Amino acid sequence: MSDSFPVVELFVDNVIKHIIAYPISHGKMFNFVAFKSQHDLEHTKFNGPWNGPADSAEFLGLFKHWEPEVQALLDVSLGAKCLAHEADQ
């Protein structure tokens, strides 16, 4: 990452995959959230666990063609977790 990385960066791919990144600890570290929306599953019952470990290869594969800044964030990430979110019915 360069020293000129913006305060908040939003990367969006077709409104399905998203990454939000921003510096924390006075710019010494970054927090980022990467996720994939599954709109085809809206209003369906979710029977799995709400959170848990994610398959790292699958996660990295979602963003393999994204900008170099995204690749730099992913290269130093500490791992992926899976979280399910149920929209209001």
Task: Explain what the structure shows.
The longest helix is centred in the last third of the chain and has 8 residues, at 68-75. 17% of the residues lie in helices and 30% in strands. Strands 1-2-3 form a 3-stranded antiparallel beta sheet, with no helix packed on it. The chain has a two-stranded antiparallel ribbon with strand order 4-5. The relative contact order is 0.21. The model has no long low-confidence stretch (mean pLDDT 77). β2 and β3 form a beta hairpin. The chain has helices at 56-62, 68-75; strands spanning 9-13, 17-24, 29-36, 51-53, 81-83. It is built from 2 helices and 5 strands; from the N terminus they run ββββααβ. The chain has one domain (9-37, 46-83). It is of the alpha+beta class and 89 residues long.
Defining traits:
two-stranded antiparallel sheet, 89 residues, 3-stranded antiparallel β-sheet, alpha+beta
Number of domains: 1
Helix content: 10-25%
Report the structural category: alpha+beta
Percent of residues in beta strands? 25-35%
Number of strands: 5
Low-confidence stretches: none
Query: Mean of the pLDDT scores?
Result: 77
Report a brief summary of the structure.
By secondary structure, the protein is α+β, with helices and mostly antiparallel strands. The chain is built from two helices and five strands; from the N terminus they run E-E-E-E-H-H-E. The radius of gyration is 15 Å and the shape is globular.
